[in-house]
Fold this sequence. Notes:
The protein has 578 residues and is an alpha/beta fold. Helices cover 37% and strands 15% of the residues. Strands 2-1-3-4-6-5 form a six-stranded parallel sheet, with helices on both faces. Strands 9-8-7-10-11-12 form a six-stranded parallel sheet.
Amino acid sequence: xxxxxxxxxxxxxxxxxxxxxxxxxxxxxxxxxxxxxxxxxxxxxxxxxxxxxxxxxxxxxxxxxxxxxxxxxxxxxxxxxxxxxxxxxxxxxxxxxxxxxxxxxxxxxxxxxxxxxxxxxxxxxxxxxxxxxxxxxxxxxxxxxxxxxxxxxxxxxxxxxxxxxxxxxxxxxxxxxxxxxxxxxxxxxxxxxxxxxxxxxxxxxxxxxxxxxxxxxxxxxxxxxxxxxxxxxxxxxxxxxxxxxxxxxxxxxxxxxxxxxxxxxxxxxxxxxxxxxxxxxxxxxxxxxxxxxxxxxxxxxxxxxxxxxxxxxxxxxxxxxxxxxxxxxxxxxxxxxxxxxxxxxxxxxxxxxxxxxxxxxxxxxxxxxxxxxxxxxxxxxxxxxxxxxxxxxxxxxxxxxxxxxxxxxxxxxxxxxxxxxxxxxxxxxxxxxxxxxxxxxxxxxxxxxxxxxxxxxxxxxxxxxxxxxxxxxxxxxxxxxxxxxxxxxxxxxxxxxxxxxxxxxxxxxxxxxxxxxxxxxxxxxxxxxxxxxxxxxxxxxxxxxxxxxxxxxxxxxxxxxxxxxxxxxxxxxxxxxx
Length: 578
């Protein structure tokens, strides 16, 4: 037998047959635990993660879908949007301490929005020589911190640093379980470079996910609330996010229809009730609470702003949520008569069952209340009464609401007037997070588009509504690049009033006759001159145009939708009045 034949009989060493390292175990466990996507901003701590993906190959082991992302804020926002869509924790991984610093704003958005994320980062090598993966670049000294997780700890539910390579799978499962346990939120995990590179036995015991079940709401408390509703002349429900759960919108609609209970969707972050529903009386409690003798705050961190408006003193406030006191908020004083710990959906269903159907005496009260609610709704701003001759945010919103397809998904970062929209079901709308960390909208829209694309859904336009200041905070070059690179067409709509509207409005509200008012409150709020935003999108192969009037907007929307149907991203720059 020739030497050549002897060599051909030797066992073939393939990439897939190489020894398992901790990075392999970690990534496999994430996938087995339900993670669909890993949004990565890579650095010198990523070699073992990269090796694991390359070793698996395109047809190899099923790992989370990797997305290359050129900025940490974008990576977290994409994971956030993806988790909103899939209702499962997704992963963002960034580069050591400096990458973690850029993740903090996104973590604050996620923790206040109650969204499960696994935020992870590599860690500077622990050792200075000798071990595979040890320090090999000057930067490895300067990037080490005494407590890397400390900078993000207040913005997450749990944080940890991997300490044993063989526990990479256990730690991944632990992180996912805590992220998704009620109330859901982000967690943080740091991964030292040497540990990811260490070999681990192929037969390491594998943990499975813990199934965390929520308890039912206290039936006695539900009965007490039902009696309060039956006795009330004008009970009001205020909600921001009860529609986040599957079935939540339909359950609330059934309850409030049966008992004619008006609903205010204050700072709505989901479609809690169809926006044109007969019981949807508006979106700002300021003028809608005056007649209420019972207020039920349902999945709402701030049911009203006491310095601006208050229910009448005799009106009881009841609160319902998984954490109805919002215990992670340092100060929050609303003085609820009772606070029910429950998922909003479970509470709605239990309350409806306890109320049953109105009896004869109740039916008269319900009918009278329905008539009053109809009169309140008649005073709401409608698309038909908007002045389209002035190109304002209101006029642009009215046209967008009328022209965009019903199946569109809208992520609103401040500027779009939701009271003019037609949303009627879950998954059509995602509002800005309570934390207010700008730079969320485009990334979240891209994450939603990524989740849809993995499911083969490509006929549902995804739209990010942004102020011009918010657009700049979104790191737009990074966002447009990610849209093009990952073939995730989306539409960005910029409400371009060339100012920080929130800054100006707050200044004028506090000092209406002050020195700042003499310059129209524009000091430190002026964002002019505005660049050619549409050109930024075109530079990434997208369709971009500038619109100066309401009459030109429908055509621009149609052209943007056509571009998206052809696989292009699109941008419409609305040059509106302030």
